[in-house]
Amino acid sequence: MNMTKIKNLFSKAKDQADLVDEKSAEQDDFSQITPTTTSKNNEQEWLDEDVEGQLSVDVYQDKDNIIIKSTIAGVKPEDIDISLQNDLLTIKGKREADTTIKQEDYFYQECYWGSFSRSIILPMEVKIEETKAELKNGILTIILPKAKPSKAVSIKVKIDD
Q1: Is the pTM of this model over 0.70?
Q2: Architecture of 53-145 per CATH?
Q3: Surface-to-core class of residue 70, CB atoms within 10 Å of its CB (0-12 exposed, 13-18 middle, 19+ buried)
Q4: Per-residue pLDDT reduced to its tens digit, 115-135
Q5: How is the beta sheet containing 139-145 ordered, strand by strand?
Q6: Is residue 55 over pLDDT 60?
Q7: What is the dihedral of CA 24, 25, 27, 32, to 10 degrees?
């Protein structure tokens, strides 16, 4: 590659970097706004209180179980509802905010407070009656024992005369 082509490549890369810097500077005005930010006069909130958060989960398996883990710090076990119907597991709950802190006293407010839920389609059948859940150190662990796969049944089709 000759020097002219190399200089042109560096020039194009610099022009693209400058364009990115310009766009970034334009967006800096918005970097201080978070979804929970309100105007000084409390004219408008971006999130209304009926919005429900969604849990992040890890779903994996070992030899005998499907295991679901979720960070769920700040939630009491009695405020968590776990339901299992067929192949759908649903986790619901509510994380209560500290109401003694005034909105205007926050510098940052990034933690989610309020209702949350998450539904997970299980990849295989489980033994519903043997399912266990534990909350330890802010981590919810749900252990779902795998069910033995049911045998396929052949169904004969009758001819209707």
Answers
A1: no
A2: Sandwich (2.60)
A3: buried
A4: 999 999 999 999 999 999 999
A5: 58-61, 65-71, 139-145, 132-136
A6: yes
A7: 110
